[in-house]
Amino acid sequence: MTDPYQQAADLFKALAHPTRLQILDLLRGGEVCVCHIEAALDKRQAYISQQLMTLREAGLVDTRRDGLQIYYRLADDRLHAILETLPGADRPAPIENCPCPTCATVILSQIQ
C-alpha cells in the first residue's frame, strides 16, 4: 500500500508546472486533441508532448486515437476540484490557426 502522503506529493509534483496546469485547464471542459493544445498555448509540439508525457505518467490524463489525431482527457476525478480553483473556460473555444477537426468544423460552420 502506497503512503497517501507520497501519493499527494506525486500529484502536486505533476501539477507544479504552469504549462501542465494550462493543459489540464483546457481538458476540464472535455476531450481535446494535441494540435488544439498546441494552438491554444502557442507552444511547440515537442514541448507540449513532453508536458503531456509527464501528465500521462502521473495518471492524470488518458488518450484516445482517432486516425492521426490523438485526443486527451482528464483521467483523475480529483482534478476537477483542484482545477475549479483556476481561472479558465469550461469548453475550449475554436482557434482560427488550429488544424484540428473540431476547430475546422466549427470555424467552417461559422463562415457558412
Set out the fold topology.
Elements: H1 4-15, H2 18-27, E1 32-33, H3 34-41, H4 45-57, E2 61-66, E3 69-74, H5 78-83, H6 101-111
Antiparallel strand pairs: 1-3, 2-3
How does this structure look, described?
This protein is an alpha+beta fold. The protein has a single domain, classed as Orthogonal Bundle (Arc Repressor Mutant, subunit A). It is 54% helix and 12% strand. It contains 6 helices and 3 strands; from the N terminus they run H-H-E-H-H-E-E-H-H. The protein has helices at 4-15, 18-27, 34-41, 45-57, 78-83, 101-111; strands at 32-33, 61-66, 69-74. A 3-stranded antiparallel sheet has the order 1-3-2. A hairpin with a 2-residue loop joins strand 2 and strand 3. The termini are far apart. The relative contact order is 0.18.
Query: What is the CATH-assigned architecture?
Result: Orthogonal Bundle
Computed structural class: alpha+beta
Give the total of beta strands.
Answer: 3
The biggest sheet, with number of strands, parallel, antiparallel or mixed sense and barrel status, is: 3 strands, antiparallel
Helix content: 40-55%
Treating each run of at least 4 consecutive H or I residues as one helix, how many helices?
Answer: 6
Tell me the domain tally: 1
Record the strand order, biggest sheet.
1-3-2
CATH class wording:
Mainly Alpha
Rounded to an integer in angstroms, the radius of gyration calculated over CA atoms is 15 Å
- The termini sit apart by 57 Å
The average pLDDT score comes to: 84
CATH homologous superfamily (4th level) name: Winged helix-like DNA-binding domain superfamily/Winged helix DNA-binding domain
Query: Which spans have pLDDT < 50 for at least 5 consecutive residues?
Result: none
**Shape annotation:** elongated
- What sequence of helices (H) and strands (E) makes up the elements? HHEHHEEHH
> How much beta, percentage-wise?
5-15%
Fill in the CATH topology: Arc Repressor Mutant, subunit A
